[in-house]
């Protein structure tokens, strides 16, 4: 008797979204397997960030269906909360609480959302800060560390919730160039450990090294998708080729 097929980490079917009269997502279909690493690229305004923000209901969508880790994202807030517990997100800007230390930033959500005790939350936070190589800054405040270190702290904070899926929304775009590599190295480490990752980025070297699938969006649609080798070396669509010609050096 054959084993049942494993349920995807994310399924999107005919997802559409409008801001007023402007349609930002147009009938998006997407399936992401567990442990898969997806990179989304495309020009500004193409719907990339909106797409991943729909996955944890930071953005509402008006048509279609989204299922995350077997849970349908419905109107009811209880279903949204359930999904958000399993989906971590790292933003372009770090969004750390400035009045809390790095350690306290990482402890806050496990204690307040999952009911984890202070000692257990502290031990877990320190282990993740060690994992992203900033444990020695645990007792500093965000203003006392660099942008790259703050972004790694934001990644650790998300990991403290033990997410099944990590979303990254242009996590290096607000960083000075010399800080980009340290954040990408942290993300590569997560990918190597088998974390399901969906990343909006223009870091094409990262996409080549880490992604199982790369998709190109324009005008709210997925124009092209494929494994990195074919996506970068033999793109099928003229719009994809034009985009890549501008960002690949």
List keywords for this structure.
alpha/beta, four-stranded antiparallel β-sheet, globular
| Total strand segments | 10
**How many H/I helical runs?**
9
Protein structure class: alpha/beta
Rounded to the nearest angstrom, the distance between the terminal CA atoms is 51 Å
How would you summarize what this structure contains?
The protein is an alpha/beta fold. The protein is built from 9 helices and 10 strands.
Element layout with pairings:
Layout: E1 10-19, E2 22-32, E3 37-41, H1 48-54, E4 63-68, E5 71-72, H2 77-86, E6 87-90, H3 102-113, H4 118-131, H5 147-159, E7 165-169, H6 177-192, E8 196-200, H7 204-210, E9 213-218, E10 221-226, H8 228-233, H9 238-247
Parallel strand pairs: 3-8, 3-9, 6-7, 7-8
Antiparallel strand pairs: 1-2, 1-4, 4-5, 9-10
Helix pairs in contact: 3-4, 3-5, 4-5, 5-6
Overall description:
The chain is an alpha/beta fold and 249 residues long. It contains 9 helices and 10 strands. 38% of the residues lie in helices and 24% in strands. It has a 6-stranded mixed sheet with strand order 6-7-8-3-9-10, with helices on both faces. A 4-stranded antiparallel sheet has the order 2-1-4-5, with helices on one face. Strand 9 and strand 10 (221-226) form a beta hairpin. The mean pLDDT is 90.
């Amino acid at each position: 008797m054959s084993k049942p097929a494993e349920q995807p980490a994310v399924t999107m079917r005919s997802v559409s979204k409008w801001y007023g009269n402007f349609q930002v997502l147009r009938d998006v279909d997407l399936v992401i397997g567990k442990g898969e690493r997806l990179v989304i690229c495309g020009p500004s305004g193409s719907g990339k960030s909106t797409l991943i923000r729909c996955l944890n209901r930071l953005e509402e969508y008006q048509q279609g269906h989204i299922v995350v880790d077997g849970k349908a994202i419905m109107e009811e807030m209880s279903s949204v909360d359930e999904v958000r517990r399993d989906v971590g997100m790292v933003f372009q800007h770090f969004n750390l609480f400035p009045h809390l230390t790095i350690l306290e930033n990482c402890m806050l959500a496990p204690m307040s959302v999952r009911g984890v005790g202070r000692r257990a939350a502290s031990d877990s936070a320190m282990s993740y800060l060690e994992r992203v190589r900033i444990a020695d800054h645990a007792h500093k405040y965000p203003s006392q560390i660099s942008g790259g270190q703050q972004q790694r702290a934001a990644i650790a904070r998300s990991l403290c919730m033990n997410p099944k899926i990590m979303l990254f929304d242009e996590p290096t775009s607000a960083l000075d160039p010399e800080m980009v590599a340290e954040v990408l190295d942290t993300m590569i480490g997560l990918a190597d450990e088998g974390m399901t990752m969906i990343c909006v980025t223009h870091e094409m070297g990262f996409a080549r090294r880490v992604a199982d699938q790369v998709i190109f969006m324009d005008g709210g649609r997925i124009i092209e998708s494929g494994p990195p080798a074919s996506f970068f070396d033999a793109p099928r669509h003229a719009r994809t080729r034009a985009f890549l010609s501008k960002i690949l050096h």
